[in-house]
Each structure stands twice: as C-alpha cells, then as structure tokens.
C-alpha cells in the first residue's frame, strides 16, 4: 500500500508542473542572445537614471516616517521638482501618519479619445530602516521620473498617470497607511476606471552567474536559475494584463524577460504597490528584478548606487516605453 501511495504521489508532480506551466506560459520568447550595442539614446537614459538614483541614495539616503521624516519630505520635493521640470503640474495627496504629513505625488496626461480609462505607472520612494535604498526603490523611482519625461508631450488615447507612492515598506506595507492603498481607495471612491497599473519595484540588479536567481517553491522548476532578466509578476485574475505587457516588451526590446500570472495564495507576488490595486478590483502587476530572490544587498546598508547595473536598467526602461505606448494607445 505504501509503495502504491508513493507512486501516485510522484505521478502528480508532472501534473503540477503542467498546471504551473499554464500560469507562466506567455506570448513571445525571451531574448537569449548577447545584448545589442548601446546607442546614444540608451547611454543618455543610463546617465539620467544614474543621476536620479545618486540623488536618492547618496545625497538623501534613508527616508521613512519613523527615523528619517525630513529626508522622506526631501525626497518628495525632489520628485515633485523633477516632474515640474518635465512640464507637469504636480498633484499632492497628503495624509497624516503618526503626526507626520505623508504625500503621494501624481502627474497626468489626459487621454484624447478614452480619457475615462486610466493607466498608472508608479513606484514607492520610501526606504526601510538603515538602508540608502538605491535599488529598493531608487531604481523604480528613477524609472518613473525618466518615463514621465519621455511621455510629457505624448498624445494618448487613454489617460496616463505617473505616481510616486509613500510608505510601501514596513511597518506600513499592506496596511491602510500604505501610500498606494490610500491612492487606490481614492480611485475607487471617485469611480475611476483604472485599466492597468504597473508597479516598478527594485529593477536595477542583474547577474550572469548560474545559480544567482532563487524562487519561492515550486517556481524554481519553471524559471531559469540565472538572474539576468526582468520579471513581470501578476495574479491569475489579471493574467491578461501580464500577457499584454510582456508581449509588448518582447516585441520591442531585446532583453531577457520572464513573466507569470500566479494564484494569490503565493504571497510573494503581492509584495509591492500593485497589491492595493488588486484589493480595490483594479488590474495591476509588478515589474521587478525579483528583489530578495536575487539581490544580496536587499534591505541592508549595502544597497548602494554602485550595485546598480544602469545600462541594463536603461534597457528595461526603454522596453517599458513600448509597454506604455501599447497600454495607453498612442493617439
């Protein structure tokens, strides 16, 4: 009897892998060849991203409500100034946390033909304690700022918003004081139709070393063990958005990419600012280098500017430009 039960158990393994493959099977193919040479546009983008991250991690450093509220406010002012310099009018959503005024920062390009349909590109700008947060999440904020500048003069079918969120990190993650949840609740209260939200979360570290990429089980059976790719992570409910995004990325950028639409019981898929949008019934996903599953300096004092691969990050951001064009339907 024991032998028969064991045999049945192992026969289930291929079935589980097959079911998992249906969740991660995505359109197009990941780029596997050497990266093409960097052109002038990519070098310019690389320099811009480096400047942003240097300000956030070196000049400002740790930024959070509990230990460094002044630096948190300084970060908000830096982001607002960058948005303004790109030609936007900045909207501030302020709320109080333990006597400190916290703020989400929003800029918007109204849609020309479908203005009631909204695409949101966002990243959080706070850090954990004792961490300069170059990658988590200076890299994501830098990408939002660069993308906002790129699209500042665009004519889009849908409304396009770029948002910098406060309080993504502990102890506010997954609480009502999380900036992205404050924002998403306001979207729902206003009856806004958010058609897509992309959370840019820790996107700056890449490795060509075999074994550099880890996963929560059982995903290691389905994904590569080298951490040289950008990941698009969503849930099964909004799997269509994941497929749309990865299709646009792969069609336009020669850079390794992986994607998956996972069940919500896998808690790691909700560890960023897309999660509150799921709670409010909006399609959303995370764009990430997978953070603690690859980055050895995650949430440490060593999360510094020198750890970021700015050329590869620039390629990811350039690929996201094509993704955004597909989502907003350029007029």
Quick structural summary:
38% of the residues lie in helices and 19% in strands. By secondary structure, the protein is α/β, with parallel strands linked by helices. It has one domain (37-328): 3-Layer(aba) Sandwich (Aminopeptidase).
Walk me through this protein's architecture.
By secondary structure, this protein is of the alpha/beta class. It has one domain: Zn peptidases (Aminopeptidase). It contains eight helices and eight strands; from the N terminus they run αααβββαβαββαβαβα. It has helices spanning 2-24, 40-60, 69-85, 134-150, 179-189, 239-252, 275-279, 310-328, and strands spanning 91-97, 100-109, 114-124, 158-165, 193-201, 230-235, 257-262, 284-288. It has an eight-stranded mixed β-sheet with strand order 1-2-4-3-5-8-6-7, sandwiched between helices. Helix 2 (40-60) packs across helix 8 (310-328), helix 4 packs across helix 8 (310-328) and helix 6 (239-252) packs across helix 8 (310-328). The longest helix is centred in the N-terminal third of the chain and has 23 residues, at 2-24. It is globular, with a radius of gyration of 20 Å. The termini are far apart. Mean pLDDT is 93; it is low at 1-19.
């Amino acid at each position: 009897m024991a032998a028969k039960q064991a045999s049945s158990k192992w026969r289930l393994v291929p079935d589980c892998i097959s079911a998992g493959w249906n969740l991660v099977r995505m359109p197009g193919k990941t780029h596997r060849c050497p990266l093409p040479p960097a052109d002038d546009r990519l070098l310019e983008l690389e320099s811009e991203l480096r400047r942003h991250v240097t300000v956030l991690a070196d000049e400002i450093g740790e930024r959070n409500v509990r230990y460094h509220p002044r630096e948190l406010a300084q970060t908000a002012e830096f982001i607002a100034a960058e948005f303004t310099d790109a030609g936007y009018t900045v909207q501030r959503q302020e709320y109080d946390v333990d006597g400190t005024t916290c703020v989400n920062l929003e800029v918007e390009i109204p849609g020309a033909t479908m203005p009631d349909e909204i695409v949101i590109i966002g990243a959080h700008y706070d850090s954990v304690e004792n961490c300069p947060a170059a990658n988590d999440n200076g890299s994501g904020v830098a990408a939002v700022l660069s993308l906002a500048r790129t699209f500042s003069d665009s004519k889009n079918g849908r409304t396009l918003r770029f948002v910098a969120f406060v309080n993504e990190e502990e102890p506010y993650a997954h609480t009502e004081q999380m900036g992205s949840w404050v924002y998403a609740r306001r979207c729902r209260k206003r009856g806004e139709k958010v058609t897509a939200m992309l959370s840019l979360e820790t996107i700056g570290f890449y490795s060509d070393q075999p074994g550099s990429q880890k996963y929560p089980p059982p995903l290691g059976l389905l994904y590569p063990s080298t951490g040289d790719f950008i990941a698009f992570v969503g849930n099964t409910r909004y799997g269509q958005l994941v497929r749309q995004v990865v299709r646009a990325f792969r069609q336009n950028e020669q850079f390794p990419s992986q994607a998956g639409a996972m069940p919500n019981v896998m808690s790691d898929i909700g560890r960023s600012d897309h999660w509150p949008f799921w709670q409010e019934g909006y399609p959303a996903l995370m764009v990430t280098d997978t953070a603690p599953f690859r980055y050895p300096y995650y949430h440490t004092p060593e999360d510094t500017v020198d750890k970021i691969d700015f050329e590869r990050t620039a390629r990811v951001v350039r690929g996201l430009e094509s993704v955004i064009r597909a989502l907003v339907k350029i007029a």
